[in-house]
Amino acid sequence: MVRAVVCRALGAPEKLQLEEFPSRDLKSGEVRVAIRAAGLNFPDVLMAAGEYQLKPELPFTPGMEAAGDVTEVGAGASGVAVGDKVIVKMRHGAFTDETVVTPSQLTPMPSTFDYAEAATYLAGHGTAYHALIDRGRVTPGEVLLVHGAGGGVGLAAVDIGKMLGATVIATASSDEKLAVAKARGADHLVRYDREPFRDAVKRITDGRGADVVFDPVGGEVFENSMRCIAWGARLLVIGFTGGIGSAKTNLLLIKGASVLGVRAGEAVRKNPVLGEVRLKALLQWAEEGKLRPHVSHRLPLEEVAKAMRLLIDRKAIGRVALLMD
């Protein structure tokens, strides 16, 4: 029997249930993967609550990314073999012991990662890559302001921003989170509750402001970001865990600034070539030891509600993984 987290009623994480199902036979072109770890992302929380743009039909299993071992390859499935260690990419369905997918959903697992790291890599670092390279076009020497730098995508943005040669200003809500951001290469640290970040950015940049803002928080954070940007700045809208922010068009006009929405997954669906380039780079950097996700919590599958609460309450630093064994 296969265990899976099931959402039968939209709402709080505590409504999710762990259920058992028999394995199903493979169809032509399909592959069976034993899941060893799955990564949590904030969209998983929103999807289970019915507040995400993708709304699967009930019942469904949450989870966008996982890692495990190929255990069976169906007729017509090519490019993969039994025993391969793989990352599994899904729109939902990853919180389970076993999944059946197509080879196109599989990516070889970096040899430098364990299962939890592999299961928490591509979504966060893929979003940061798309934001900073495809959308923000960060160049060496620019000032990058990263909000929520203690979170999964925030830390990924610190990682990639430093690789691109930017001066990174990291903001977070605690010294512990900022310490991790510093260890990942952040040049300047700002705690939200100790100094208004817009004042800190002006102080750090001698009044010039940030060239690029990476914002997964939204709300007042987004609105105040417009008051500490340089000429030609790019404000990258990653998410809105802190609410929906309003863009003051006069501030954008005065600074010649741009607001850019970031949807890494949808961008690939619209233009698959973008995804191929991104994936190649991320896997190469992982193998070279340049990138590695920071996994602060590893919990068993049955504690999925507790794991989601870590994201909701902002207690996680970096990523949270569910372990199946």
UniProtKB/TrEMBL annotation:
SMART domains: PKS_ER. CDD domains: QOR1 (cd08241). Residues 11-322 form the Enoyl reductase (ER) domain. SUPFAM superfamilies: GroES-like, NAD(P)-binding Rossmann-fold domains. This is NADPH:quinone oxidoreductase. The lineage of its organism: Bacteria, Pseudomonadati, Pseudomonadota, Alphaproteobacteria, Hyphomicrobiales. PANTHER family: QUINONE OXIDOREDUCTASE-LIKE PROTEIN 2 (PTHR43677:SF4), SHORT-CHAIN DEHYDROGENASE/REDUCTASE (PTHR43677). Pfam families: ADH_N (PF08240), ADH_zinc_N (PF00107).
